[in-house]
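To whoever is on call:

I kicked off a structure prediction for a single chain this morning and the downstream step that reads the tokens threw a length-mismatch warning. I double-checked the sequence; it's 220 residues and nothing unusual in it as far as I can see. Pasting both halves so you can look.
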Amino acid sequence: MTPFLLGMLSSLAASAIVLGLDLLRGSRPLWWLIAACSSFTGTGLRRIYRRQASAERDIARDLDRARWIKVLAGRGNVLTREAFSSVWSGKLSPDSVQVLLPDSRARQDSWLDQRSHDVQRFDPGYTRTLLRGQVRTNMDYLTHVTSARGNVELREFNLPNTCRVIATDRAAFLTFYSSSTHGRNSPCLYVRAPGLLYSIALQQFEIAWIHSSPVHRTHP
């Protein structure tokens, strides 16, 4: 196959992806078109949610079928909502659940404080103390609700707060945080394994996991 033909096909694939993204402006995005482009390029992209919050019903569906679960979050509110209720109630029993949240006890001028500073530019109510308190509250919830769960590991990290990853053995929901909007309002990518974006999602998680510290839980 000539370089010219390869270049033309790549251009067509890129154009198709742009068209798929543009269709997100409608009420019913054409997921099949995005998936077709993804299969051609090897990215693994299957869906794009205009807002991260819109993905929670599908997150719950994927968790129901997961052998393992990995979560890297910037605040962790989703972990206390309906999407994860079956995981914490014991209705589901995956082999392992690994959760990473920012270290709310880190010294001042931490990466969590940097994220607070970014958010405060467009939401003045988000002070350093407020975001730290929200993360701490969510971690307290998790330590309590998982106190009797031997398959759950909780850890804290002090690294750049740039994305959210909710991954299973089959797929991942990947959100890259913006410095100009809340994470819940950022687009969320649904990527399947195997694929480039799925590998990136797991890599983001593993890097944070290696540089994290365990949260000790009191077992009943």
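Update from on-call: the warning came from a stale cache, not from the record. Cleared it. Sanity check on the structure: The two ends are 65 Å apart (CA to CA).
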